[in-house]
Structure formats: C-alpha cells, structure tokens
Amino acid sequence: MKKMSNGMMWGIGIAVVVLILLFYVVGSYNRFVGLSQNIDGKWSEVENQYQRQADLIPNLVSVVSSSVKVETQFVKDVVAARTAWLNAASVGDKDRAGVGLFNSLNAFVATAESYPILQANKQYIALTDELSGTQNRIATTRGDYIKAVQSYNIAIKRFPANVIAGMFGFTAKEYYQAELSSMETPSLGSGTLP
After folding, report:
1. Which residue, 137, 146, 145, 135, is CA-closest to 182?
2. CA 40 to chain centre
3. Which among 7, 31, 19 is positioned nearest to 168, based on CA atoms?
4. pTM of whole model > 0.90?
5. Distance CA 144, CA 160 (A)
6. Window from 32-41, 110-119, 123-132, 181-190 with minimum mean pLDDT
7. Are 47 and 94 in contact (CB under 8 A)?
8. What is the spatial distance between Cα 113 and Cα 115, in angstroms, rounded to a whole number?
9. Closest CA to 163 of 37, 21, 13
10. Of the candidates 1, 3, 30, 40, which lies 20 to 30 Å from 132 by C-alpha distance?
11. In this predicted structure, what is the pLDDT of residue 179?
C-alpha cells in the first residue's frame, strides 16, 4: 500500500471541509424554507378561524334580528366589521379587521344578552357557544403563529446560520402585535338595543 503524499492529504482534507460546508449551507437553507412555510401555514390557520367566525355572523344576526325584531346599530356594526375582514388583503389588514370584528361581536353579544327572549333561544345559545369556541381557537392559533415566527427568527439570527440567511435573503418576520385599541374594553353604551 502506498503512502499518501502531504499534498494529497491536504486535498482530501479540503474536499471534506468543502463538502461539510456545502451540506451545512444546503441544510440551513432547507431549514429556513421549512420554518418560513410553517409560519405561512400557521397564519393560514389563524385566517381559517377568522373565516369560521365570519361565517357564524349571518346566522347570529338573523337569529337576533328575528327574535327581537329590531334593526340596530350593533347589527350594522357587526355586518360592517365582517365585510371589512372579508375585504382585507394583507396579513396586517386581515388581523386588524379581525380584531375589529371580535370587538364588534363582543359588543353585539353583550347587548343582545339583555333580551330574555334570546336567553331562551336554543339557536342563539348554540351560535354564541360556537362563536366563543372560535374566538378561543383564534387566540390559540395566534399563539402558534407567534411561536413559529420566534423559531424562524432565532434560526436566521444565530451565527453562523445568519450568514447563510443573509446570502439567500431570509429576513426576520414580524410578530403578531395587538392593536392598542383592542386592549380597551369596548363601550356598550346603555347596554340595550335601541
């Protein structure tokens, strides 16, 4: 068996290092793509839950309107908030419209609950229970989205992966941030439908 020359050993060593770096770059790139797609998937689930909430509104408005026989500003506000959500295009606009829809629905339900006839209506009770469950799912899916963004942002900012992320144009994603107005308790006025 022949002894390898120093030059050949150096060549093999350099080739091994290049292969390791290549595998690291490819692996990092694929990981960033996967994490980015995970964020998109998590946001799609948030939108799915908002859509579920929006789909409940026509039935809820119908039950309330037919039971109390009034057309109110609360009904108009909920319908307008639903329309704003359906027409929103960007992630930020969709979420702001979703917060507005949530606030309108809460004010609507709080006001509608002052009517004893609605408290006895099984359809109304079922719809508000479903709406409450949907709002809980929205909060859960937003949390999942935030965790996905955090994982991605950490991955692209750690050294040496940050060099690869920069080479391929992976930039930090924005976290979900609640609007300041969504943290305020909505004003319910007199608490009755006009």
Report:
1. 135
2. 9
3. 31
4. no
5. 27
6. 181-190
7. yes
8. 5
9. 21
10. 40
11. 55
